[in-house]
Amino acid sequence: MVKKRLTTSNKNQLKMKLLYILLFILNIILFIGLINYLPKFGTTSFNLNRFEEYSAIIAAMVTLGYISTKVPKIQNLGESSVFGLVYFPLICIIGIMTSYFTDKFDITLFFEPYLEMFKVLCAVLIFALLATNLNSFIEMMHEKHTRKNQMVCLVVFILLGIFASTVNIRVDGAPANIRCLIVMISGLFGGPVVGIPVGIISAAYRFTLGGPTALPCAISTVISGIVGSLIFIWNDKKFPNIPQSALLMFLFTGVEMLVIIIATPPTISFRFIEDIYPIMLFASTIGMFLFALVIKERKTETSTTISHEEQKINEFKEELETYSDEKIEELKKEIDRIVHEKKQE
User: Which of 173, 228, 285, 326 is most buried, with most CB under 10 Å away?
Assistant: First the structure.
């Protein structure tokens, strides 16, 4: 029996890996398509400039982050003069790089859509995280997938999916939202009973909103519910860990863009993707990371509470078990003796 269970678990893990590989391959196809077709629309130079900005800022953040982790270790050497010699140049470097980026790029314009998208993400996640306080959600975290709990999660995620479709930002006229993030979470959290209906209903609502990308966005929404549900089944009905869930959302956002390319004319799809892909990638990945982190913390917190209550119950059981039949008989005799003495008095 145990051997059969281990074999099934290994097969499921293999299926998950194959799904991740498939999503990765689809992302490669997306990037090949972008490289081949974007020059035809006269956007090559724009993309190269954008790539230069991204790479320069990311490289600067990585470098400063690495240096900042080393500074405290230098301070531990106990020589304040050495620490000062390192810390002072670091502050100078930060000042120089800040001046450089401010002069070379319009930082406000660059980060504005990301900040706007982050506001949308926060608004949706607040409601999602509040929902995790419901008893049904807490029980689902501990693998109590009853019909009642699933129905509660289904209703909550449908409302969140519609809300995520309605609340969006416009990037050069193109709507960017995190609908697929919510649908993916519903599948990862509640399985096919929750994820697939949420995907279908959210997709239908998106389709009613219209627009040139209504059909591909609806299709990708349904696919996100199916993918999340498959991961739920293959991962023993558990929400995946933080790296797995964040990587899944990162890869699926690329698939979402690929569906738009396939289902819409190139004159629409490539310009649409160029505007919203980086922002949606940022919001979806960060959103999944934050939700998975909260799920992990909530599960640990509730597990601690439950284990404390179970510990008390076990202590009572152990205490009762210490009362053997002989001890109970002795207690009865003692009670009878006391009663008899009272009567004689």
Answer: 228
**DSSP 8-state code for residue 176:** E
DSSP states of 10-77? HHHHHHHHHHHHHHHHHHHHHHHHHHHHGGGGT-HHHHHHHHHHHHHHHHHHHHHHHHHHHHHHHHTT
Q: Point out the least confidently predicted range of 26-35, 43-52, 55-64, 309-318.
A: 43-52
Instruction: Read off φ and ψ for residue 163, nearest 5 degrees.
Output: -60, -40
Would the pLDDT of 16 be above 60?
Answer: yes
Cut 0.85: pTM above it:
no
Amino acid at 81: S
Burial class, 179, CB count within 10 angstroms (exposed 0-12 / middle 13-18 / buried 19+): buried
Nearest CA among 296, 297, 288, 257 for reference residue 185: 288
Is the pLDDT at 44 greater than 50? The verdict is no
d(CA 93, CA 156): 48
pLDDT at 277: 87
Neighbour-count burial of 298, counting CB atoms closer than 10 A to its CB (0-12 exposed, 13-18 middle, 19+ buried): middle
| Angle between the N-to-C axes of helices 179-190 and 192-208, in degrees from 0 to 180, rounded to the nearest 10 | 160
Which amino acid does the sequence have at 6?
A: L
DSSP states of 293-335: HHHHHHHHHHHHHHHHHHHHHHHHHHHHHTS-HHHHHHHHHHH
Torsion of CA 151, 155, 158, 159, to 10 degrees: -170
Rounded Cα distance, 160 and 167, in Å = 10
Average pLDDT over the chain, rounded to an integer: 77
pLDDT digits (tens, 9 = 90+) for 225-257: 999 999 999 998 889 988 899 999 999 999 999
Domain spans, the chain = 2-41+112-318, 42-105
Q: How far apart are CA 257 and CA 165, in angstroms?
A: 16
Checking 94-102 for CB contacts under 8 A at 24+ apart, the result is 94/64, 97/60, 97/64, 101/56, 101/57, 101/60
